């Protein structure tokens, strides 16, 4: 059986390399005829790389994860829009959607296609388990050869910037089975505090000016806000948390992650040292973090309705001015805090990290990969996947002359047409892209460079938005307010921490789903969330309740899962 | 004794009324809340201020819907689907129910057919085999994928069959003596007698196919072609789940615009209107339909 796989693999590699060679031949042959046409129409950088347009139209079928509010202009669809037309113009590839669906519904379509045994030429899969299943069922093509031959240097450098963490994840038996979507580190869960309130009340925090505050300072601000009740709201709340309290993502919005991290607890995180695996939620530090919340709950600093307050309810607390402190990722001003500004034109926020006793801000690396593009074994042109990736993750991103070269695409970017309308709905960004993009914006805002020197179209739009806000802070549009806060506060914080080496980076492990996880994880998660909420609201004692939880957790399969993960790591 | 009984029965009646009114409110209030939300300003909705009366009354959400081409596209798809489903369901159910009213003496395979139907009603192939079947039949992405898999609702067959059994046999015999063939008996005698019951199954299939969103999710692979309820359920976005999927901040921004609750509430209200209009027309048949069908001679 094993042998068969290897033989098959060899055959496939042979065929692909043969195809590659023949295509290269084609490529150089048709180039002469095509060059004149291409260069007159659009300046196609991708065409200069190996493998330009196909001589005969190639049809590729896709499985695409859509977004409900893609903001496509009237008449354009996922199948026929500026991006798909661009692919047709540049490569002579016609894209046909086999299926489209959004969110979880997309996952269902993928499973259905999988069980029907027929997958489109190329599609996105969201989870590693799906990718593995596709590989084990021998349904997807090996991309090692075409990646090597066709990927542009920049595309390769993007993946290399993750030091193997991205490509390792899609490598099975030494073969690259998918194009991984990258996931840059999103930084910590930032504490967003109403700075207009702090000013009115004359509250001073962050005396050392490192943008990180202590847990005590946070407590002080919360109690002062609650006492002053500047908005004269009914039912003022000091701090509100979502019912699940902790998040597996470092930047978990409405979670208590930042407080836990400052106390050295890393909830919902698998950590490894010397081959021993530890689950962060069961570490003694977690007990301390929960005790803090439970103390605040008793003192009335934490929402008395903790546990029943939903996500939407917390958003409502913020926009009603019932609370002025919240926790979340750098971009919440763009889509969550903007509601606060809608209700109160004077609202402004300041972002802080929470520091530990050593004055450091702990943060955790993200899984480097989010989403995969796989190519069906039946697909006759696997190299097209790489070509499309070159176009979207290299040419379009690195070019700052999009307005001139691809006016239609530039309009899309300016109007905020969603990125999911690109053929592949994954993000492929340099590991440092968050801060790289920000440095342009920062330089522009401080007057060091002009708008034309800003490298990407996206950053240009952000920069001019921020400029508009700074010219007239109280009268500016909400969207300009949002862009200012998410960049000049949210990313600025990450930038400052990086520059001053305030970060204490934790590298967790991202195990594959083990057999016991499949059967027991849901129950374990439920046990964890229920216990944590009970401890937080003082229903059970922190000391006893937590020890009981750890025991129970191990008994219900946790111990088994740890053993399985340790086995994986060997 | 008599007084006591009347007192207790009056008490019982008033308790029953209380319970029924309470249950009625439990059903009505959430819907009323949606109506109130649809007429409130977006800011008031986000701030959780809307209860049973609209806050900052506005019809802006409805104006937006009028311009929403996708909404009307899905709406029309659902209308076509309902029309097809009603015609198919009614014809097939009546044709299936009539032979089953015959005894095994007249229709030898009757019990076999009946058992097959009941078996198919209780057990089905499940999602994936059904999907593969629809795919292999080439129905995927067509309106027929929404109509054909549910073309013969077996529960309705049993309902109509029992109703037919309740019609005096002498009517049918008289027609046969006058020279009517079985088809004429069915169309000219039984169907007119069974009007209330047929109105009931028509209502069932209208409500069923209008409200069904799941088959749209499975069999229609382009959101553009979703029927109305599938479209509305796709607007219901769980942002906290999406946060985990490495989505870019601009996509999250686009999504959070979508969780415009007053607009979505208005969509729900508009989508419910057709049913609200049809119900009163057919409801008077609904009750007699089920009750009469359930008793057989």
Automatic annotation (TrEMBL), chain A:
| InterPro entries assigned to the protein according to its UniProt record, in alphabetical order | Bact_solute-bd_prot1, EF_Hand_1_Ca_BS, SBP
- Entry annotated with the keyword Signal: yes
One Pfam family per UniProt: SBP_bac_1
Matching PROSITE patterns, A to Z?
EF_HAND_1, PROKAR_LIPOPROTEIN
Q: Which UniProt keywords apply?
A: Signal
Q: Does the keyword Signal apply?
A: yes
What highest taxon heads this organism's lineage?
Bacteria
Q: Where is the signal peptide?
A: 1-27
Q: What is this protein's name?
A: Putative aldouronate transport system substrate-binding protein
**Native source species:** Anaerosporobacter mobilis DSM 15930
Automatic annotation (TrEMBL), chain B:
**Main localisation:** membrane
Which biological process annotations from GO are given for this protein? transmembrane transport
Where is the protein situated, by its record's location annotation? Cell membrane
List GO terms (cellular component aspect).
plasma membrane
PROSITE patterns, per database record = ABC_TM1 (PS50928)
Among Gene3D superfamilies, the record links this protein to: MetI-like
Q: Which residues form a coiled coil?
A: none
Residue ranges occupied by any ABC transmembrane type-1 domain in the UniProt entry = 71-282
Q: What residue ranges are annotated as transmembrane?
A: 12-32, 75-100, 112-132, 144-165, 185-207, 265-282
Q: How does it sit in the membrane?
A: Multi-pass membrane protein
Instruction: Enumerate the UniProt keywords alphabetically.
Output: Cell membrane, Membrane, Transmembrane, Transmembrane helix, Transport
Query: Is Transmembrane helix one of the keywords UniProt gives this record?
Result: yes
Superkingdom field? Bacteria
| Official protein name in the record | Putative aldouronate transport system permease protein
Q: Which organism is it from?
A: Anaerosporobacter mobilis DSM 15930
